[in-house]
Amino acid sequence: MVSKTSEDNSFFTEFLEDYFAECEEHLAAIRQNLLALESFLNQPTVEPEVLQALFRSFHTLKGLSGMVGIKEAEALAHQMESYLRLLREEHPPLSASGFDALMEGTKTLEQVINCQHQNAPLPNIEPVVGQLKALLPPEIPPSQKGIITPIHLELPSAAQDHLKGAKEKGQQVWHFVFSPNSQRAQAGINVNVIRSRLEQLGQVIHAAPRLNSDHQIVFDFVVTTTAAESVFAPWSQDGVTWNPYETDRESLNPLETAVTTVKDSAETEPAKAATPVPEVEDTSPAPLLSTVDSPPALPLEPMTQPAPLISQPSTVVRVELPKLDALMRMVGDLVISRARLDDYIHQLTNSLPSAQLRPLQELNLTLERQMRDLREGVMRVRLVPIGEIFARMQFVVRDLVREIDKEVVLKISGQETEIDKFVVERMMDPLLHLVRNAVSHGIEGREQRVAAQKDPVGQIHLRARTSGEMVVIEIEDDGQGVDGKKVMGQAKARQLVSTGGGEDHYDGMTLLDILCTPGFSTKEQVDLTSGRGVGMAIVKNTVRELGGLLDLTTEVGQGTCFRIQLPLTLAIADALITNVGSETFAIPQSSVREVIEVPPSQIIHFENNEIISYRGQVLPLVHLSQLFHIAKSLDPIHPDTRLKIVVAGSSLNTVGLVVERIIGLREIVVQALTDPLVRVLGVAGATELGDGRVVLILDVSALVRMAAARKSISQGNRE
Amino acid sequence: MKRILVVDDSATMRKMVIASLRDLPGFTFSEAANGLEAIEQMQNSPFDLMVLDLNMPDMHGLDVLRFVLSHPDYQATPIVILTTKGDPESKNEALSAGASCYLTKPFQPKSLAEQIQELVNLKLGYNVN
């Protein structure tokens, strides 16, 4: 045994970043599994797979923390592991105090790791360690723990039950055999690849290696699936054979009785049983390799699916985000260089004979396509599923609900939606705030809900989906809604809006603007959960900085829905290049709805607004020339000059941007304007075009707000 | 050159093990994140020594060990168990199943390197000095 001194801890400090990254993965898995565990509270049995997954995560965390010398994390993980072992082996029902201890322990463990990461003083772990210790029986002398437990007697039946259930559901059970070799490995066909293929097919309920009669290693997999055989027929080229798996107990071959189950020691997972002994292997495995038309395959000792949440295939490479940022910047530079080439070729159009020009143009087009693929590839690398932060929200709601007297269920959908890693990190706080808001302001108290004939349990939906180049996140509650009158009243009292107008004129946009004003809060009393009134300002600013849009729809008594639209990625975007006078502007394509041409006669002048009728609705116009005080080159009064209008914004709020020329779609590299001194309302950033010109990128959401504000002012004036 | 296969489901742990052993002359390293992958390597890129974790998804380390040692070409392969489990039962079980050496995490890099070197001298008749 290796002695445990701290003499050499410095050796492993170079792995600290890896350690923190891996901790994050395990903690995310733990959070998900704890939520799954909650449904087994006070139930007679607890799903063993969930316990197993949790156990393994804490086990790995314990080992890693010990290696990097973080004793507190090691001790905590050890205690959690001990309690989980008790749950797994002695099957006591999961008590509320036990679950609380696991939650507290996880939270403290996360704090310890975070504090260590930030070199902050570590929290005191003693209370929670004591809490966990109290759950364990006074002492378990390790030597008395059963070494040989006949777990294999009960587990196969569980797996058999699983098989039966699958058959009842009309699923087929297949026995796959994969024969690996080095040619296949070089071609990228290895056991992990085959396994993940099978996982896509259905559920892998057994996976084990075997030596066949030629002393070759093969892998057996038992899979339940609804997929037709034609789906995996091509895999025979990759060394995969299959035949239907026979589940009848009666047809058991002597092999099954000869298959030994691994003796499970205290920590051996029961689910990982079934290792064939070599004596049997020499004589009997041949039928397992039989082809489809041979007699039914021998049954294998199936095992339950190992927790898929935390199994990490070794094909994953961990990369620091700054490296990916650098890569993205390089792609950005390439995009600009190609745009330059594009312009140059354009200039040559008149001076070069077409026979010479054509290959250049074709090459340029190929280059463009390849660049687009490269850009997309780099972007994909940065995408992570949003589910991880959604799972955190479950924790938040759970904690909040305990502090206040409300019942709330958080429903999550679309957690597999992928979004840029940077965006996910930045959205953490805003989402946290919106969810907190929904719990503390949105959902009413129990009596109030009953009085309003609503389900006493409030619901909050957290949804994500991809829509074109954007990711849409919605936080919807079925609570009391935002009381527009009250908000307007308070806004007027605080002189956030002009007091002259009528009481009743507000829409989602106006309300949102007021709610997002720093310091604005409708809550009379500031409590722990929310009410200081700075949160919404943070939400709005973050969404804007990320180039996204924030919408609010609310109905008093029915509920509130915040919708956030975010670009999939930040650095490079497609944009519509337009021209006004001598100035050129880029409008992000993700916010362009369409481009229309309208004769000037269709414009309706209305107070200080210009509007047109657009698809049955009113579209406010913003003249970029007026907004940025640019001298027009065209004469708009000429009756033949049709106005070119770029319809931009989200589905709820649109604005018509009047431009003079549409130059075309270009890939642009977005450079944010973060210096407060050069910030201009309506400008989101700048980009460099192929000819080296610097062009401003319009901030569509700001322009939409501007148009909406004007509309409400004129509505106010009307009265 | 002798090849050491490091099997552990934690990527960080694999890195740490390899970093601890990288100064031993005459070795190359390969990695596997689970038991199935480790066993595939037996066939595709044979190894001379295995450093094996116990608690892993899919296949428990002991099952991997039993399988490797049941293969005619690998019967004499030195297998070093490197695990967080320190109880004597696990150790006995692993050693009686045929493990050459049972080490626990956290480990000291120097100590791990020394133990492996000793084992190599003894088992493979291969002097790394």
From TrEMBL, chain B:
Sections of the chain in a coiled coil: none
A Pfam family annotated for this UniProt entry: Response_reg
Record-listed 4-aspartylphosphate modification sites: D53
Keywords on record: Phosphoprotein
Gene3D superfamilies attached to this UniProt entry: 3.40.50.2300
Protein name listed in UniProt: Response regulator
Organism: Spirulina subsalsa FACHB-351
Residues annotated as domain Response regulatory: 3-120
